């Protein structure tokens, strides 16, 4: 099991904006059957690509199932939704899945309004998600 | 818009979104918009301003203007303008929710979110400007 903190991986422009307090962090943990990605902070137009890049790196390394723990995600815009959709479509085409867990607050409202919530496996916790794999 | 409205004009670029957001946030707090609603206001501003930045002009050109004024107790009227291509977001078709994951287009959700999260969304074209106005918070606070 490995864990590392990524600070807006690949998003050099965003990270140079030191004045801006809004960041997204992605903390990956490699498990037996999936990679757990704990996503915290705000996913917006400036950094949503970092989530997709992080997922792409795990997919390239052979990950079939990704679990996004969104319990500490405070904000997601349509650019973030685009990244979630793109990753889920890639994984589905190779019989994998992007699983969401701990959705709450504004991100949950956004997934519900756009009816995306019905397109992803969604669980209350990462433990529940893992138990289905 | 109230002649006493506060206005800010910046280049229509992704880097301007955070500056506009902080500008309107300060006004929203002064107008006693509940602090818990501010992330939703951020979202609405991001969606509209990203559309302007991506589609209104040739890349790296043009400007956007954001103006706001208190509307009623705890609410704000916001107006976002650009001088670019004619674009009425109220004419955008809603997403096709019947499509499954594999067929779902990646885009097209921003305008839908804006329409869902604000009140009195209105568009007008005036003297070469696209002007989109709304009241915030929306119907669900």
Structure description:
The complex is a heterodimer of chains A (133) and B (141). With 133 residues, chain A is of the alpha/beta class. Chain A has a single domain (6-131), classed as STAS domain (Transcription Regulator spoIIAA), CATH 3.30.750. Helices cover 37% and strands 28% of the residues of chain A. A 6-stranded mixed beta sheet of chain A has the order 1-2-3-4-5-6. The two termini of chain A are 17 Å apart. Chain B is of the alpha+beta class and 141 residues long. The model of chain B has no long low-confidence stretch (mean pLDDT 93). Chain B is globular. Chain B has a single domain (6-136), classed as Histidine kinase-like ATPase, C-terminal domain (Heat Shock Protein 90), CATH 3.30.565. In chain B, strands 1-2-3-5-4 form a 5-stranded antiparallel beta sheet, with helices on one face. In chain B, 37% of the residues are buried. Classes of the chains: A alpha/beta (133), B alpha+beta (141).
Quick description:
Chain A has helices at residues 12-16, 48-60, 78-93, 105-113, 126-131, and strands at residues 6-7, 24-30, 35-43, 65-76, 97-101, 122-123. Chain A is built from 5 helices and 6 strands; from the N terminus they run E-H-E-E-H-E-H-E-H-E-H.
Q: What's the SSE blueprint?
A:
The complex is a heterodimer of chains A (133) and B (141).
Chain A: E1 6-7, H1 12-16, E2 24-30, E3 35-43, H2 48-60, E4 65-76, H3 78-93, E5 97-101, H4 105-113, E6 122-123, H5 126-131
Parallel strand pairs in A: 3-4, 4-5, 5-6
Antiparallel strand pairs in A: 1-2, 2-3
Chain B: E1 6-11, H1 17-30, H2 38-56, E2 63-72, E3 75-82, H3 110-117, E4 119-126, E5 129-136
Antiparallel strand pairs in B: 1-2, 2-3, 3-5, 4-5
The tally of beta strands of chain B, per DSSP, is: 5
Structural class of chain B: alpha+beta
Runs of chain B with pLDDT <50, length 5+? none
> Strand order of the main beta sheet of chain A, please?
1-2-3-4-5-6
Give the number of DSSP strands of chain A: 6
- Overall 3D form of chain A: globular
- What form of chain B results from the Cα inertia axes? globular
Name the CATH superfamily assignment of chain A: STAS domain
User: Tell me, what is the CATH class of chain B?
Assistant: Alpha Beta
Task: Name the poorly predicted regions of chain A.
Answer: 1-19
CATH topology of chain A: Transcription Regulator spoIIAA
- How far apart, in Å, are the first and last alpha carbons of chain A? 17 Å
């Amino acid at each position: 099991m490995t864990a590392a903190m990524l600070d807006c991986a690949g998003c050099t422009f965003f990270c140079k904006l030191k004045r801006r307090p809004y960041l997204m962090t992605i903390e990956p943990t490699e498990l037996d059957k999936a990679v757990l990605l704990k996503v915290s902070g705000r996913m917006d137009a400036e950094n949503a690509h970092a989530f997709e890049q992080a997922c792409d790196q795990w997919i390239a390394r052979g990950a079939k199932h990704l679990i996004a723990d969104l319990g500490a995600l405070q904000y997601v815009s349509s650019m973030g939704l685009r990244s979630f959709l793109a990753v889920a479509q890639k994984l589905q085409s190779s019989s994998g899945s992007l699983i969401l867990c701990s959705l709450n607050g504004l991100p949950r409202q956004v997934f519900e309004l756009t009816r995306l919530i019905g397109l992803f496996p969604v669980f209350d916790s990462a433990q529940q998600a893992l138990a289905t794999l | 818009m109230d002649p006493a409205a506060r206005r800010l004009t910046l280049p229509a670029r992704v880097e301007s979104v955070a500056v506009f957001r902080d500008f309107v946030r300060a006004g929203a707090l002064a107008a006693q918009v509940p602090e818990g609603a501010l992330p939703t206001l951020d979202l609405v501003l991001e969606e509209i301003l990203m559309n302007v930045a991506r589609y209104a002009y040739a890349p790296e050109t043009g400007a956007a203007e954001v103006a706001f004024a208190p509307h009623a107790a705890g609410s704000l009227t916001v107006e976002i303008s650009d001088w670019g291509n004619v674009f009425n977001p109220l004419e955008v078709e809603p997403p096709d929710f019947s499509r499954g994951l594999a067929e779902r287009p990646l885009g097209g959700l921003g305008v839908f979110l804006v329409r869902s999260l604000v009140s009195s969304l209105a568009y007008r074209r005036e003297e070469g400007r696209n002007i989109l106005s709304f009241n915030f918070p929306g119907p669900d606070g």
